Amino acid sequence: MPNNKAKYTEIIKAEAKRLGFLSCGISKAAFLEAEAPRLEAWLNKSMNGEMHYMENHFDKRLDPTKLVEGSKSVISLLLNYYPEEKQQDNTYKLSKYAYGTDYHFIIKDKLKTLLHHIQEEIGEVDGRAFVDSAPVLDKAWAAKSGLGWIGKHSNLLTQQVGSFYFIAELIIDLELEYDSRVTDHCGTCTACIDACPTQAIVEPYVVDGSKCISYLTIELKDNLPTQFQGKMDDWMFGCDVCQDVCPWNRFSKAHAEPLFNPHPELLDMTKKDWEEITEETFRKVFKKSAVKRTKYSGLVRNIQFLKK
C-alpha cells in the first residue's frame, strides 16, 4: 500500500495549502521518547508556575495514541499571524498574536474543513483537531514533522519564515508518509537569552515559565510578584521580545487572514488611553480576541503594575 500513503499525503498537504496554512508536516503517532525526561525535569523544577494543568495527563501529553484511540499519524500545521501594522511606539504592548480574532476559532474551523476533506477524498478516517487546548506538545510534534527546529527561546523556528505563527494538529487513524526533522540553525546566537527582560530563558532551550512575561500577564491569576517591577518592558498581555530579536524573524511576512487584523482603535491607543480603558471599550476592542482570557480586571491589573 505504499502508493496510497503517498497519494493520501499529497491530498492532505494540498488541502492544507489551499486553506492558507504556511506549511504541513506529518509524523507517526508514537511516544515522544526524547521529550519525556525533559518535560519531567521541567515540571520537577516547578518551571510551570501556577500552570498546574501542565502536570496533568503526563502520559497523554507524550503519547497521542493514548489521547486519540487508534491514531496513526500526527498532522502538524502552521498558520502565520505576523501583522502588517503594529502598535505605535511608547504604549503598553500586546503580543502580536492577540491583535485580531481569537486564533482558536479560526484554526478549529480550518481543521474541521481539512478533516472533512480527508473523509470525502479518502474515506472513513477518524481524528481529532487540537489548537493548544489539550495535552499535546505542539512544538515537539511540529519539530518532529520537519516544520522547523525548537530555538533557544523554546519556540519553533523556521528558516524561511521565522516564528510568528500558530501551531495546530490533526491526529488521525490513517497511516501516511512521514517527514523527517530539520537541523537546528541557532548556532552560537544568544540574542533571545540576552534580550529577555525577566531572564526567563535560564539556559539555552529552557524557559522558566514562572518568570516569563506571557505567563505573568496571562496565566498568573494572583498579584504580580514585586520582583518583576520595572522589568516588564511595558508588556500588558503576552510578550514578543525573544521573537522580535531573533535574526530568523527578519524573514517574517505579513499574514493574509483578514480575521487576524486588529480592531481599528487598538493600534492608535496611547498609554493614557490604556490607563483609562473602560470595560465597555475593552469589550468593543477585544470582542472576539484572545485577550478576553485575562478579562478586563486582569488587563487593568497588568497596566496598573506597569504604571508603578
UniProtKB/TrEMBL annotation:
| Binding of tRNA, residues | K221
Residues of the active site are D132
Q: Cite the 4Fe-4S ferredoxin-type domain residue spans from the record.
A: 174-206
One GO BP on record is: tRNA queuosine(34) biosynthetic process
User: Major location, coarse class?
Assistant: cytoplasm
Subcellular localization(s) per the UniProt record: Cytoplasm
Q: How does it assemble?
A: Monomer.
Q: In its UniProt entry, what is this protein called?
A: Epoxyqueuosine reductase
Protein source organism:
Oceanihabitans sediminis
Q: What is the lineage of its organism?
A: Bacteria, Pseudomonadati, Bacteroidota, Flavobacteriia, Flavobacteriales
